[in-house]
Write a structure and sequence with these properties.
Helix content is 96%, strand content 0%. It is mainly α. It is rod-shaped, with a radius of gyration of 53 Å.
C-alpha cells in the first residue's frame, strides 16, 4: 500500500503540475491580451496626437488667412484714403477752374463795356 500511496501522490503531483502549467498558460494569454490592448491604446494616442497636429496646422492656416484678410482690409482702407485725397484734389482743381471762369467772365464783361463805350463815344 505504501508503494501505491506514493504512486498516487506522484499522480497528484503530476496533476497539480499540469494545473499549474495550465494556469501559467492562461496568465501568458492574459498578458498577451493586455499587451495587445496596450498597443491599441498607444495607436489611439498616436492617432489623437496626429489629429491634434492636423488641427494645429488648420488653425495656423486659418490664422494666416485671417492675417491676409487683415492686410487686404488695410490695403483697401489705404486705397480708399488715397481716393479721398484725389477727390479732394480734384474738388480743389474744380474750384480753381470755377474761379478762373468767373475771372474770365468778369474780364469778358469789362471788355464788353469798353467796346460798348467806344461805340457810343464820338470818334475823335
Amino acid at each position: 500500500m505504501t508503494v501505491q500511496g506514493l504512486h498516487g501522490a506522484v499522480a497528484v503531483c503530476e496533476m497539480t503540475m499540469q494545473g499549474l502549467h495550465g494556469a501559467v498558460a492562461v496568465c501568458e494569454m492574459t498578458m498577451q491580451g493586455l499587451h495587445g490592448l496596450f498597443t491599441v491604446c498607444e495607436m489611439t494616442v498616436q492617432g489623437l496626437r496626429d489629429d491634434f497636429t492636423v488641427c494645429e496646422m488648420i488653425m495656423q492656416g486659418l490664422h494666416g488667412l485671417f492675417t491676409v484678410c487683415e492686410m487686404t482690409m488695410q490695403g483697401l482702407h489705404t486705397l480708399f484714403t488715397v481716393c479721398e485725397m484725389i477727390m479732394q484734389g480734384l474738388r480743389g482743381l474744380f474750384t480753381v477752374c470755377e474761379m478762373t471762369m468767373q475771372g474770365l467772365h468778369s474780364l469778358f464783361t469789362v471788355c464788353e463795356m469798353i467796346l460798348k463805350h467806344q461805340k457810343e463815344s464820338p470818334a475823335g
